[in-house]
Design goal:
The protein is mostly helical and 103 residues long. The protein has 5 helices and no strands.
Length: 103
């Protein structure tokens, strides 16, 4: 996925939004010239501002649910849905903002 996203970013003008950055509360936009796109998320700046505390809590619960899945335990599927819904809303919000400024 990262390689495809990087190639689309480098060669076709797409924006590379690294989904893993959503759950780690970092800037999800990976630069097109990144030498190792899948590892670039480590160096991305942390997010700040409105909604950050809520995002952290949603992602914490989702990560706990994933660990329960890995361990074969019962988990609350809603926690995972909340994270992916939040991520989708973030992408849509960013897309609207870019459209407003003509990018």
């Amino acid at each position: 996925k990262s390689t495809s996203a990087a190639l689309l970013s480098q060669n076709a003008g797409f924006v590379y939004y690294e989904a893993d950055c959503y759950s780690t509360c970092k800037n999800p936009y990976i630069p097109p010239d990144s030498p190792n796109p899948s590892m670039a998320q480590v160096n991305q700046r942390p997010l700040r501002g409105e909604g950050l505390s809520e995002r952290k809590e949603i992602c914490r619960r989702a990560n706990e649910a994933v660990m329960k899945i890995v361990n074969g335990e019962d988990y609350d599927e809603e926690h995972i849905k909340q994270m992916y819904t939040g991520m989708a809303e973030d992408i849509l919000r960013e897309e609207r903002e870019l459209a407003e400024i003509g990018q």
